[in-house]
């Protein structure tokens, strides 16, 4: 079967960008509530890319990152991955825990739980936007947290979904409180059949 996402035209991408914009707005609102701070966002950058390109976007395969991976079930299946670099993770966790923002992270149970919760909330904001625009039922699994080099973290969904599709929808998010900025990279990886369902539900299939 041809990779459905490779056949997207500019109109399809505009629709996906709109989902990205709404999702980023939802995520900024959720982040503001979580951190009890005013959070603004930049217009997210949205691209379609191959798995082989993803580690370069994250700064190279050996860049240390935190990855939150959620499996998606329901009317479409696949996975969603939210990647934070170390400075962004440190900033978010320390604000959430009321610590000085420059404090080093100790990856204990509390810190890992906080990272999972942050990733779950942000990824859930996008799933909610996608569900509302498509009327598709989308259910995320409990998030899994990985702390490793980008190449190692990316190998998990690449192996699992590479047999169905080698393409991902990439959304770069930048959130700011006016002084500090957080960069979060979101990757939506529906399986090949789900891309067709997604576009049909959006009325652009």
From TrEMBL:
Record carries keyword Aminoacyl-tRNA synthetase: no
Entry keyword set: Chemotaxis, Hydrolase
Limits of the CheC-like protein domain: 11-46, 112-145
Record-level GO BP terms: chemotaxis
CDD domains for the chain: CheC_ClassI
UniProt KW Phosphoprotein keyword: no
InterPro entries in alphabetical order: CheC, CheC-like_sf, CheZ_family_phosphatases
Coiled coil feature spans: none
SUPFAM superfamilies the record matches: CheC-like
GO molecular function: hydrolase activity
Protein name, per record: Chemotaxis protein CheC
Source organism (scientific name): Thermoclostridium caenicola
């Amino acid at each position: 079967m041809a990779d459905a996402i490779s056949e997207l035209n500019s109109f399809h991408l505009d629709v996906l960008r709109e989902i990205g914009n709404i999702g980023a707005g939802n995520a900024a609102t959720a982040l503001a509530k979580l951190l009890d701070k005013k959070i603004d966002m930049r217009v997210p950058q949205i691209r379609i890319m191959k798995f082989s390109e993803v580690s370069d976007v994250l700064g190279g395969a050996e860049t240390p990152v935190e990855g939150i991976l959620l499996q998606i079930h329901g009317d479409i299946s696949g996975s969603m991955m939210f990647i934070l670099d170390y400075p962004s993770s440190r900033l978010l966790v320390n604000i959430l825990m009321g610590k000085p923002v420059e404090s080093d992270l100790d990856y204990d149970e509390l810190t890992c739980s906080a990272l999972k919760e942050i990733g779950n909330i942000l990824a859930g904001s996008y799933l909610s936007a996608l569900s509302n625009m498509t009327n598709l039922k989308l259910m995320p699994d409990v998030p899994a947290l990985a702390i490793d080099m980008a190449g190692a973290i990316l190998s998990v969904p690449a192996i699992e979904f590479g047999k169905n599709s080698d393409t991902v929808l990439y959304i770069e998010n930048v959130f700011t409180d006016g002084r500090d900025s957080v960069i979060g990279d979101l990757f939506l990886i529906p399986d090949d059949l789900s891309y067709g369902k997604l576009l049909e539900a959006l009325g652009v299939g």
